[in-house]
Design a protein that fits this description.
The chain is an alpha/beta fold and 388 residues long. The protein contains eleven helices and 19 strands.
Length: 388
């Protein structure tokens, strides 16, 4: 049986003020074409369909279109809710939608009830484990202490119990939305830490043939049977080096797993550039980034005037500007108090400016502004302390 594993669509999300709806629509086109061209038998969507619990109307319309197109292909789809989704909203109409072959699994109580599909080699049981918020689902799953490992372990116990009652040779696939130990995070996933522990061990999934994970945005292989597909689009500059893709998974007659990646369309590449403004504007090696979405980190000791305007002239799609001035090394053996000893208030302020600028102190105009600010503070202090 050939499976297409994807996750973390985050429909409705933007990228640093850039609306990504057209790029997300292009991904849906690509998804449908991949299902058709690669002879896919089932589509797996491992959570975070939407970017927030109450998504914008345009995102809902795109999701509705995706459901209709997948149903029209006659290829079953199994989909779970993620931590960004509202499980209750996403699951509305799940029974009716399921009749069209799109199986939404958003209720934690149904973890042990699979979608059963068959091929020439027999049945495959697909278990959808939606994102399990420990405090909200511990009672449903009969767990005494709230924790990610505990609730996911209880859900998998239900999966293994159901699987054990099925005919010998029944193959199994689990969809889950979780942070599994060994996965590499990026800046665009929402923190799901509870009590300081967010990750669960991969061993919690023992006993099933394939685990289709969602939540982490980088495509990753934890074991031969446990994989993250990653998000189809980049949602932070920390993903600049990601290759966005989906997994084409072939599940053999005995539960054997082979997988290959199929790339997703890239609306615009990402680039992170770093250096002094003049160097970034002149470096011929950065020509390849001129049409990319750019995050620029400036290391100039003194903030240049209107740096964003200057950067945009060369990189018209620059989106973020980070200031990280170069600083000379400091003598760690000298305490802060010793460095300030015998200095006037004016000298302390000017020294602070020099510190944050990497050694470049204030000019004559800036020193005058600092002096005026000190005089105003002293005058106000004298006014409030004067006897009445």
């Amino acid at each position: 049986m050939r499976l297409l594993h994807t996750s973390d669509w985050h429909l409705g999300r933007s990228f640093h003020r850039v609306n990504l709806l057209s790029a997300q629509a292009a991904f849906v086109d690509h998804l449908v074409e991949t299902v058709r061209a690669e002879g896919v038998d089932a589509v797996l969507v491992a959570g975070d369909v939407y970017d927030r619990a109450v998504p914008p109307l345009a995102a809902v319309e795109l999701f509705d279109e995706a459901l209709h197109r997948l149903a029209d292909l006659g290829v079953p789809t199994v989909m779970i809710s993620g931590n960004h989704d509202s499980a209750r909203r996403l699951g509305v109409g799940a029974g009716l939608i399921g009749r069209a072959g799109v199986h939404l699994r958003t209720d934690p109580a149904g973890c042990g009830t699979p979608v059963v599909l068959a091929d020439a080699h027999g049945e495959v049981a697909f278990y959808g484990l939606p994102y399990l918020e420990p405090a909200l689902v511990k009672d449903v799953l009969g767990v005494e202490r709230a924790g990610h490992a505990a609730v996911l372990g209880a859900a998998m116990d239900r999966v293994r119990a159901d699987l054990a009652a099925r005919p010998a040779g029944t193959r199994s696939v689990v969809l889950a939305h979780a942070f599994v130990t060994g996965g590499e995070a990026s800046d665009s996933e929402r923190d799901i830490t509870v009590g300081g522990v967010a990750s669960v061990p991969a061993a919690v999934f023992d006993g099933v043939d394939y685990v289709a994970l969602g939540h982490l945005h980088g495509c990753q292989t934890l074991t031969g049977r446990i994989r993250y597909s990653g998000s189809p689009l980049a949602y932070s500059f920390s993903e600049a080096r990601h290759r966005k893709s989906m997994w084409l998974v072939d599940l053999g007659p005995g539960g054997e797993v082979s997988a290959e990646r199929t790339d997703c369309p890239v609306p615009r590449p990402l680039a992170r550039v770093r250096g002094r403004l003049a160097d970034l504007l002149a470096d011929p090696g950065l020509e390849r980034h001129e049409q990319a979405w750019v995050e620029a980190t400036l290391t100039d000791p003194v903030r240049p005037r209107e740096p964003m305007a200057a950067l945009t002239a060369r990189f018209p799609h620059v989106l973020t500007l980070v200031l990280d001035p170069e600083r000379p090394p400091e003598d760690a053996s000298v305490s802060y108090g010793r460095r300030l000893r015998d200095r006037t208030d004016q000298e302390i302020l000017e020294g602070f400016v020099a510190h944050v600028r990497g050694g470049a102190g204030p000019d004559e105009h800036e020193s005058a502004l600092l002096g005026g600010a000190l005089d105003a503070v002293r005058a106000e202090a004298a006014r409030t302390e004067a006897p009445r």
